[in-house]
Amino acid sequence: MLELSRDLLAWQRQGHRVAVATIVAVHGSAPRPAGTSMAVRDDGAVLGSLTGGCVEAQVHEACLAVLAGAPAHVLGRVDAAASAGAADLFARALPGDDLLGLGPLDGDLSMGLTCGGRVEVLVRLLDDSPDALHQVERAAEGLSARYGVVVDGPATGRDHASAPEGAPLFWETREAAPRLVLLGATAEAAALCALGAGAGWSVVVCDPRPVFCTKERFPEATHVVAAWPQRVLPTLALGPRDALCVMAHDERYDAESLGIALRAGTGFVGAMASRRTRDRRAATLLADGVDQALVASVRSPLGLDVGARTPGELAVSVLAEILAARAGRGAQPLSAA
Q1: SS3 305
Q2: Tag placement on the chain: N or C end, fewer CB within 10 Å?
Q3: How confident is the model over 298-315, as pLDDT tens digits?
Q4: H or E stretch including 27?
Q5: Reported pTM
Q6: pLDDT digits (tens, 9 = 90+) for 103-131
Q7: Which residue segments constitute the domains of the chain, with CATH numbers given?
């Protein structure tokens, strides 16, 4: 649920009632882990995906039922004692990727997957969960969040704060989002801001030009700061989970800002530039006393060599390089592995 926080919060503020379906247990192989959520609002619109298509239609129907007044419940659970040897829930693939649920127990929906696994999915109203809403707000702001919900018994769907003693809880946690700091309010920065926010980063855009550095141009950003970067960066307490990208060439702040980020131990530091500009910046950083190894760590020119031309394509190549560096991967095609 927390991974959908921004959109969930927007739905709430628009006055929609929302049902949330969350994978609370995985048996065998499944496309996505426990904690993955899908949300359905009162007009039927869908946010997120649980399995990439295997059980979404069943979950959508269950969410609509909860919105219509059905109680919170868990789909796909098999009670071994009650089933007394009955066949497990499973699904069989049919032509056209339709799924037929076979052997549902106790009138429940089959949560079997074509990959052979099974998931248990809790379906409940978000409106009924004050603590859930509070944690959604925290996650949307890029802050750490933690939420527990009862997954069995008559209190199913209740927050941990109001759970009966001993009730089984499913806990969902989310670390404070890593920050992606973009210096320069360019078209490439706008595209990267949207991609980064979609990938779970808390994006900070900074540019001293107030006419360009606006929330309207960067709606997905957590913070948009129209100020000199070298004044803003020391206040951010950058660290190894963060990334900083210089998206514009401006000698009034780019080299100094890179030096601040490098000395702070920022996990990824990169700059869009020609090789000539890169070398000139490197010379400036060395002259300012920045350690040579730190200067050499700056990713510039920025992005993977994928033939990118447009701002959107360049943003994809930059985010791919950031993710590969963060994971310590060589950014090879999966088909070549």
Answers
A1: coil
A2: C
A3: 999 999 999 999 999 999
A4: strand 18-27
A5: 0.69
A6: 333 334 444 555 557 889 999 998 767 78
A7: 2-174 (no CATH), 179-327 (3.40.50.720)
